[in-house]
Design brief:
This protein has 121 residues and is of the alpha+beta class. Helix content is 17%, strand content 49%. It has 1 helix and 10 strands.
């Protein structure tokens, strides 16, 4: 019989912690969010992007670049996946590059849009 000393034992808690850390990293890589002048809140199939007004605001989400082009009143122009969209709060989602884009809100300081993968596109 061999008696091994110093052999680390992987407890179920350690394994679970490692698994959770790996899953968290995988989700972060899948979402692939980065931004400047904007904040993002992403899931696997949709992101909410809040652009700061008055700065060059853009974000890369779900593998596509989004950018605030301009805002006047309740109408906003954004660029998503290389295409410009004019959006108004409350209008039906615009479809672009396999995504649906809606304007959630417009204030003097911020513009918030929602970009979701189109299940049909």
């Amino acid at each position: 019989m061999t008696n091994r000393t110093g052999t680390p034992h992987h407890t179920p808690i350690r394994r679970a912690a490692g698994l959770l850390a790996g899953l968290a990293l995988g989700v972060a890589l899948l979402a692939g969010c980065s931004s400047e002048g904007a904040s993002t809140d992403c899931g696997l199939d949709a992101c909410t992007v809040t652009f700061e007004r008055g700065v060059e605001a853009h974000a890369t989400i779900l593998g596509v670049e989004t950018r605030l082009v301009g805002a006047e009143g309740d109408q906003v122009t954004v660029e998503v996946a290389g295409e410009r969209l004019s959006l108004t709060v409350g209008q039906q989602a615009a479809e672009v590059g396999g995504f649906s884009v809606t304007l959630d809100s417009v204030t003097d300081q911020q513009v918030q849009i929602r970009v979701a993968r189109n299940p049909n596109g």
